[in-house]
Design goal:
Mean pLDDT of chain A: 85
Low-confidence stretches of chain C: none
CATH topology of the domain at 1-70 and 209-259 in chain C: Rossmann fold
Helix content of chain C: 40-55%
Order of helices and strands of chain A: HHHHHHHEEHHHHHHHH
CATH architecture of the domain at 1-70 and 209-259 in chain C: 3-Layer(aba) Sandwich
Chains: A mainly alpha, B mainly alpha, C alpha/beta
Number of helices of chain C: 11
Strand content of chain A: under 5%
Strand order of the largest sheet of chain A: 1-2
Structural class of chain A: mainly alpha
Largest interface: A-B, 64 and 63 residues
CATH class of the domain at 1-70 and 209-259 in chain C: Alpha Beta
Radius of gyration of chain C: 19 Å
Number of helices of chain A: 15
Number of strands of chain C: 10
Strand order of the largest sheet of chain C: 6-7-8-3-9-10
Number of domains of chain A: 1
Oligomer: heterotrimer
Mean pLDDT of chain C: 89
């Protein structure tokens, strides 16, 4: 798990050809189709649905932090905005939930632009701080603007999505609905990575100055990244509201943001693996009820071990380089200069 | 009183400063109380802020888990003082030592290897985030989520200071913090160790050439930064409810202090913290208590946007 | 009368108390190979940084093909036709060689987010264009077999070549190279000199900074000498070699006096 280079190909070994991306995707699709049968419980399917919702947020983080290198601990704010806009408009104004599935994420994306514009100047830890601060402000606003958001009591009786007579709030129906959307989103992210836009983002992540000198409008792409990740998180928020019919402020805490980031990292910032890790880490604590309270402890520990391992591997690879100059320069890389 | 679950994180701090009696019609007294209270709170932000800047300057990375180390301090203190029934001073000293030990372990097990592997700064940041999550969950696993409290350690009766009533806790906080800060300053300027650390901060390679064992210095500065944080934690705990997430808000404000004061500048961090504390206290009194935190974060964001170099900045430019 | 590609007029650049460039004038002629030399700290890299938009000068102007480009952000300057490499190699480590070079084409191809995700609109055509252009460049630099490698695993000399390829991908009219031969042995430097001549033959104007005098002698049409932020000499290699101020700058006054 190195900071990802999904675009760079290495010579593939024979077994890889047998299990190429297309075959894996097919296997994945089949597995996804039959998963509800394996789980055999409406409750577990509901939890998987929630996991799939989280997967969208994680996918957004893969684009923002994985592709563009902008680490954000504030994604929960966009998630929350998406949920609340969807909930408020459908319950107060009676607009169709389907319509809100497009509008709510767009509002979230607008906030993403709002955060992105000033944030484009900020490096690493400063960016993280501003995203945390932003998320906190949103959280406090949500709790205190009671006439709008219902304050600590949240919003209930949110209408659900109905498709061809089917009520998509039923976990099973929602499941098939969301995995199609998720698959499309993941495919979109892969296509993004392989495109000119994706290259620009990776360039910004790897070396912002050089990217700019090579002709990339860094400011524009950073803002675009924020907007896209906010859109995905807002979309997840709207989906959640329509799935459960009730939202409240304690769903949108800083802890969530931290776990989204952990999920992205555990998946190696891959457009496919990270969202699936998100689903898994949402489902797992329910499957292993006894460990429920400890799973985040466990996984954050694993994450640290994995990072150590990844750094060790990079180091071994780099020191066997014939180019010693790079080794000498890597002290510089530790600093955010 | 029932706490709705939504405000679980919103547990109000039992800021004794807000309980200070306000004598009728005296602007001077109110002013003194605000300044005293604000400064005390501000110093509680300033100390972790100083720790962050110290670490950044010598080691070049940003410890996002700082707030959670404050939380860990509080819980250790609770353990020694309440659960083990030790006298407060003994408990405090043991807590500081424990934090130092934790710092040593974390550095040896995590940060030192990562430095040796020339870890990418992005990954380094993520590691501190993972550490933060780990610490929170560790606290939760050991002590549970029910809010705990230390009780009033420094005494309930306010003292009379130029006719303003100020809690003893305020005095202790301001006094001890300033002592620590001055002590650190003297250490950094006068002692060999301090000079070595400042050298390492300026230029690691040159310092190494001059014989400074930079790895040792970085490990040491991490331990020192944690011990500073521990002092802050000890002073803060009596006025807070202990919950696993308590470090988040404090940590964020400590970051805010470093940025407001000018990143990389230790004095700036202290000044930034004090300013933040005073402004927050004022906002709490004159504007609204529930938006107090939002205002603090708003200030942080405003600074990051308009004055990202803070009030007293140090120039750091990249050679192309 | 040869056309002027780049006109640098009285450029001054200050860093705090240090005046890195002091009223420097340079004219770079079309399709020439213009080399900038000077002792360390004379402001050569600073000049290139000003020309490519990385620094904004305190005084003076830069005109490219008659148009004023002073103060424009780097990506706009690149779009106008100036490309550059850096003194330290700066590859994009997360991408393969192919992708690095393709990134150079970023400002010459145009399709947006939606088109990228959906394969629609301009994307198919532009993608083909990128494919063919990268292949073309790979052939020109003879690195076709390295395209799928990760930059980090390649030897230093190859990385330098790829950086030049990346810069050339943006179809520049002016190519600025900052010490392209640094760290190269004689054979590699010779090969590089030939490559630069071939780039020249394509019609690209090349301006570069170098210390390796053999290399400079091989390729330079005109040489500008900087010392302590000022231009002290300009001309052919022979002119500059015998110029007393230049000798002084490199070797000190006493040696120059004895020369």
């Amino acid at each position: 798990m190195r900071i990802p280079a999904p675009g760079s190909s290495r010579p593939t070994r024979n077994w890889r050809r047998l299990l190429g991306p297309k075959q894996l995707a097919l296997l994945g699709a089949v597995f996804a189709m039959v998963l509800p049968l394996i789980l055999n419980s409406d409750y577990l399917i509901l939890v998987t649905d929630m996991g799939a919702v989280v997967a969208f947020i994680v996918l957004g983080l893969v684009v923002l932090a994985g592709f563009t290198g902008l680490v954000s601990l504030g994604q929960v704010a966009f998630y929350s905005i998406g949920s609340y806009v969807a909930a408020i408009v459908t319950t107060r104004l009676g607009l169709s939930p389907w319509f809100m599935l497009l509008i709510a994420p767009t509002v979230a994306a607008a906030f993403g632009v709002l955060v992105g514009i000033p944030a484009f100047n900020l490096k690493g830890p400063f960016l993280v701080i501003i995203t945390i601060g932003f998320a906190e402000i949103i959280r406090i606003l949500v709790i205190n603007l009671e006439h709008l958001t219902g304050g600590p009591f949240g919003i209930s009786r949110i209408p659900s999505l109905k498709l061809a007579g089917l009520d998509l709030a039923r976990p099973l129906f929602f499941y098939y609905f969301i995995i199609v959307l998720l698959a499309l989103a993941m495919y979109g992210a892969i296509r993004l990575r392989k495109s000119r836009v994706g290259r620009a983002l990776i360039a910004i992540r790897d070396d912002e100055l050089t990217a700019e000198v090579m002709g990339v409008n860094v400011k524009y792409y950073k803002i675009m990244s924020f907007a896209l990740s906010a859109f995905l998180a807002g979309f997840a928020g709207a989906l959640y509201a329509f799935l459960t019919g009730y939202i409240g402020p304690d769903l949108y805490t800083f802890n969530e943001s931290a776990s989204y980031l952990c999920m992205s990292v555990l998946g190696g910032f891959s457009a496919v693996v990270s969202p699936l890790v998100g689903v898994l880490l949402t489902l797992l604590p329910e499957l292993l009820r006894s460990l429920k309270d400890y799973y985040m402890l466990f996984f954050s520990f694993i994450l640290m071990v994995l990072v150590l391992f990844a750094a060790w591997r990079e180091h071994k690879a780099a020191s066997s380089d014939s180019d010693k100059e790079m080794g000498a320069r890597s002290w510089q890389r530790l600093r955010w200069k | 009183m029932l706490w709705p679950s939504a405000t679980r994180k919103e547990v109000p701090d039992r800021t004794s400063f807000a309980c200070d009696e306000i004598e009728e019609g005296s602007v001077m007294e109110l002013f003194l109380q605000v300044v005293a209270g604000g400064t005390a709170i501000g110093l509680l932000y300033a100390l972790p802020a100083l720790a962050i800047v110290l670490l950044w300057n010598t080691a070049g990375f940003f410890n996002l888990a700082q707030g959670d180390f404050v939380a860990l301090t509080s819980y250790f203190l609770y353990f020694f003082y309440i659960m083990m029934h030790m006298p407060f001073v003994l408990a405090a000293v043991l807590t500081i030592l424990c934090l130092g030990a934790v710092g040593f372990i974390v550095d040896k097990a995590l940060f030192h290897p990562l430095r040796r592997f020339n870890c990418n700064p992005l990954l380094m940041l993520i590691v501190t985030i993972a550490l933060s999550v780990f610490l929170k969950n560790l606290i939760r696993a050991i002590w549970g989520t029910k809010p705990l409290s230390l009780g009033n350690v420094f005494g309930e009766t306010p003292l009379n200071f130029f006719h303003a009533h100020i809690m003893p806790h305020t005095f202790w906080t301001v006094g001890l913090s300033l002592l620590l800060i001055i002590g650190l300053y003297i250490l950094s300027q006068k002692s060999l160790l301090g000079v070595a650390m400042r050298a390492a901060a300026e230029s690691r390679e040159v310092a190494q050439l001059m014989g400074v064992k930079s790895n040792f210095i970085i490990s040491l500065s991490f331990v020192i930064s944690l011990m500073i944080t521990a002092v802050a934690g000890i002073l803060a705990t009596p006025i807070l409810f202990l919950i696993p997430e308590m470090g988040d808000s404090l940590g964020l404000k400590a970051f805010a202090a470093t940025i407001i004061g000018g990143f990389g500048n230790p004095l700036g961090a202290v000044v930034g913290g004090i300013l933040l504390g005073i402004v927050e206290t004022l906002a709490g009194i004159y504007l609204s208590s529930s938006y107090k935190d939002a205002i603090a974060f708003g200030i942080l964001i405003a600074f990051l946007l308009f004055k990202p170099k803070g009030l007293f900045s140090l120039k750091i430019s990249e050679k192309v | 009368m040869a056309k002027v590609t780049l006109e640098v007029k009285a450029i001054s650049k200050r860093f705090g108390g240090v005046l890195a460039l002091n009223q420097v004038d340079v004219s770079i002629l079309e399709n020439s190979r213009h080399v900038i030399i000077g002792p360390n700290g004379s402001g050569k890299s600073t000049l290139i940084n000003v020309l490519s938009g990385v620094y904004t000068p305190e005084g003076g102007d830069v005109f490219f093909l008659g148009e004023k480009i002073t103060g424009l952000p780097p990506y706009r300057i690149t779009a106008k036709g100036i490309a550059r490499t850096f003194q330290n190699i700066r590859p994009f480590r997360g991408m393969s060689v192919w992708e690095n070079i393709a990134l150079g084409l970023h400002c010459r191809t145009h399709y947006g987010l939606f088109e990228a995700i959906s394969h629609l609109g301009r994307e198919p055509v532009e993608s083909k264009k990128i494919d063919s252009k990268v292949t073309e460049l790979a052939e020109f630099f003879e690195i076709g077999n390295l395209l799928s490698a990760n930059m980090q695993s390649l030897p230093y000399g190859k990385q330098r070549i790829i950086e030049i390829a990346r810069a050339l991908a943006s179809e520049p009219k002016l190519l600025l190279l900052d010490e392209p031969a640094a760290g190269m042995n004689t054979a590699e430097a010779q090969a590089l000199a030939q490559t630069i001549k071939r780039i020249s033959a394509l019609g690209v104007t090349v301006a570069l900074i170098e210390h390796n005098m053999e290399f400079v002698k091989e390729i330079a049409d005109i040489i500008t000498v900087l010392d302590s932020g000022e231009k002290i000499a300009e001309g052919s290699f022979l002119d500059v070699q015998s110029n007393r101020r230049v000798v002084e700058a490199y070797l000190g006054k006493r040696v120059a006096a004895n020369a």
